[in-house]
Amino acid sequence: MKRFAIKDYGLAKEVFIEIEAEPRPVDETHVRVELLAFAINPYDVALRQGAMRDFRTLKFPYVLGNDGAGIVTEVGSEVTHVKVGDEVIVHAVGGTYGEEVVVPSKKIVKKPLTMSWEVAAGGVTPWLTTYNLVTHLLGDKIGETVMVQGASGAVGSLLVQFLKEQGKVVLASASKRNEGLVRQLGADEFVAYDEADAGAAFADQADTVIDATKGGRAGEAGMEIMKTGGNFVALNNLPSEQKKNGNYLSFGPSKTYSDFEALTAFTELADKIQVNVADVLPFALTSVISAHEKLEGHPSAGKIIIKKAD
Ligand SMILES: NC(=O)c1ccc[n+]([C@@H]2O[C@H](COP(=O)([O-])OP(=O)(O)OC[C@H]3O[C@@H](n4cnc5c(N)ncnc54)[C@H](OP(=O)(O)O)[C@@H]3O)[C@@H](O)[C@H]2O)c1
After folding, report:
1. Ligand 1 center to residue 208 CA distance, Å?
2. Closest CA relative to residue 231, chosen from 251, 202, 216
3. Each residue of 52-74: pLDDT tens digit?
4. Mean pLDDT over residues 203-217, rounded?
5. Nearest-atom index, ligand 1, CA of 216
6. What spacing in Å lies between the alpha carbon of 58 and ligand 1's midpoint?
7. Whose CA is nearest to atom 24 of ligand 1?
8. Antiparallel, parallel or unpaired: β 189-192 and 169-174
9. Which CATH superfamily is 126-250 part of?
10. What is the dihedral of CA 174, 177, 179, 184, to 10 degrees?
11. 2-123+275-307 — its CATH code?
């Protein structure tokens, strides 16, 4: 079984290798999935660079990847909600960069037949983040007006759409080149951060501000936009100096969130929520390296997906 692993921390072209791995056994509660598509996330890039090594030590060779979609090939004896042959969406702790993954059954749901493989794989982490942040971290505290910074990104674009589904007023910022995309997703107001100061334009207007920019670059503007006493949510680090009274929250994955619940919601909203896919690359080591190198820069909006030929 072919997998794409890193042999060390470092540059993509120096550390990615193709390995032939032994299939893992499937116990009572697990499921084996033949992967047809997997997504590359900014988190994978940080892991490969060694930026997370103080919190998460990897054992090499390590197979990155949390998000995938494919076909069930084996189920444990206690698994009832999927069967061999089902098309599924997978959220794994790691290991989706390859032909196969074995995951606990509660981390997969059936993929709607109308959902493409690339959308199924590309939506996983961005959707889990969106859903859990809005539904569980904030819940009723979110208020009526929400600012999404990084609204053109994988997480930001789903946030805009999910918040509009919930009837919120959505203020948004991203680069000028992505204004059309963000408006089409439903944002009520838009400011291009590379043309104007979103902090001044939307000062004191949002009950909740979510900084979904890459690396959390919009904290200063976000604090200006938050109403005093509102919520400021960071997907990366919180601003070092909190300049306004408010509820400062750091979002991260939590064992209290149910992947099954969130991914089921994703499948239920499939017809209403758009996952932007920028690139679909063939199932090859060169594709994985090229995807990582692109994500290190400032690529056009949309997920990069590695997909097996139909
Ligand atoms: N804590 C968690 O559980 C969690 C979960 C998922 C993601 N994340 C993190 O959240 C961030 C967003 O993830 P993603 O997958 O949505 O990334 P993404 O698709 O690459 O989106 C990045 C966003 O950042 C914006 N951006 C890039 N450079 C910027 C700059 N200099 N100033 C302002 N905005 C800028 C982009 O806007 P333009 O392209 O329009 O400039 C885009 O909207 C990443 O840092 C990721 O690691 C955290």
Report:
1. 18
2. 251
3. 999 889 999 999 999 999 999 99
4. 97
5. 45
6. 24
7. 213
8. parallel
9. NAD(P)-binding Rossmann-like Domain (3.40.50.720)
10. -120
11. 3.90.180.10
